[in-house]
C-alpha cells in the first residue's frame, strides 16, 4: 500500500456481475474489481445454486479502491448510472432475485452516503 492510499471496499449488486465490472475497473483510484456472489446464507455457492434462487445470494462486484483518488460518492454515481432502480424483478433481461440491485455497505459512513445517493 502506498503511503497516501486510503484503501476501502465497496460492494454493489446490479444485475449480471460481468456487466458491472467494466464501468469501474478502468477508473483512476480503482485497485481491483472482483465479481462473485454475496448476501446469501450458503457458503461458496455455485452458479447453478445461485440461479436456483435458493441461496439468497446476489450477483455482485466488490471494488477495492483508494478513497483519496476515487471517493465512495463517485462510485455510487457510477453504480446508479449502470442500473434501473425501478426494476424490482432483476435487471434488464436478467430476471430473478440474484439479479436485483443492492448496495452492500461496509461501515456506517458508506450506509449514510448510500442512503443519501438514492434521492
TrEMBL record:
Where would I find the Peptide methionine sulphoxide reductase MsrA domain in this sequence?
10-118
What is catalysed by this protein? Answer: [thioredoxin]-disulfide + L-methionine + H2O = L-methionine (S)-S-oxide + [thioredoxin]-dithiol; L-methionyl-[protein] + [thioredoxin]-disulfide + H2O = L-methionyl-(S)-S-oxide-[protein] + [thioredoxin]-dithiol
What Enzyme Commission number(s) appear in the record? 1.8.4.11
Keywords, ordered alphabetically: Oxidoreductase
**SUPFAM superfamilies, A to Z:** Peptide methionine sulfoxide reductase
* InterPro entries according to UniProt: Met_Sox_Rdtase_MsrA_dom, Met_Sox_Rdtase_MsrA_sf
Extract the GO molecular function terms from the UniProt entry. Answer: peptide-methionine (S)-S-oxide reductase activity
EC class, as a word, reads: oxidoreductase
Q: Which Pfam family is an annotated match for this chain, by its short name?
A: PMSR
The entry assigns this protein to a family as follows: Belongs to the MsrA Met sulfoxide reductase family.
- UniProt name for this protein: peptide-methionine (S)-S-oxide reductase
Give the taxonomic lineage as stored in the record: Bacteria, Bacillati, Bacillota, Bacilli, Bacillales
Encoded by which gene? msrA
